[in-house]
Amino acid sequence: xxxQEHAEIISDEVRDEIRLYECARKYEIIVKQFDELVGIMxxxxxxxxxxxxxxxxxxxxxxxxxxxxNRNEAIVQTVTRxxxxxxxxxxxxxxSAT
Length: 98
Description:
mainly alpha; about 85% helix
């Protein structure tokens, strides 16, 4: 085995290690952001069906709709940030691999 062949093998191994490291970092980011989403989803109160009259029900519904809208907006922001970070990271690693 020549010196150049040996250097190419080491170079391939180093590139593989770098790719592995980048994948592990992306995985950590995905897990962290998934945990954030799960945390948001766990704070969503379950709908309770109540027996009885409708007195004041429209006020509760409006408040509930506003809360749901706020939670939906938080989820959208988190997912958007996640996708943006993932896109940025993959673009960075693609340009560094070439």
